[in-house]
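User: Predict the structure for this protein chain, please.
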Amino acid sequence: MMIFKRLKQLICYSALIPLAAFADNQTTLIISYGDHDAAPYSIEIGEQLYGGIIKDIATELAGELDIAVTFVKTPRKRIERYLENNTVHLVLITNPAWLTNSEKLQWSESIFIEKNMMVVKADNTNKYQELIDFRGMIIGTVRGYTYPTLQPFFDQEKFIRYDVSNLNVNFIRLDLRRIDALVDANILINYQLKKSNNAQDFTVLPLIVSEHNIQAALSPNAPITLTQFNQALKILKDQGVIDAILKKYQPEK
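Assistant: Here is the predicted structure, written as structure tokens:
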């Protein structure tokens, strides 16, 4: 009886080996994110990625590609090196113009378009139809970011750049009238206003400062091909999944 029981245990164990081996060998795509990916691009609890656009899109892509994904928090200054040496496989929210080694990486089709916009106090009744209309104003910006369309005006001191650490600080400074306007991505601005208690105190101007194609950067030896990524991305875009994810983090109209 003991021999039969032992034999049965061995048979059951051997049947599990292929499944364990498959799980160990399952393709895993390592996705980079960081503090530079402000909410709603990444939303953390503690030091763990809890939600946000990066996590939502990555989860949908993983389902289409039938792969596992894991997220690694990466300092902005190490992104390029980590992509080149395959420490990470994918950066979702980027653009070739933002990385100095872009020619060494694989670039996806456009995921969505991000627009830099200006925000002023709601009681500001001035008309702003072009950038020169901000002459003499102090513009709230984020430290470490470049603003190519605004830089000539900063260089010529047509208006003044004032750097802070993040968009939330700029909203506080604008509310206190320490700056005259702030500039940032529409997705970040709208999310900030969505969770704000005083959104009515601000106006997002219709003037578009700049537009950027948001693309994914894929490492040279990623476990998926660029074609596979683009095919999965197309399915999600065609089905309206990407638009639905973006809408999730915007104010209701």
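The two ends are 72 Å apart (CA to CA).
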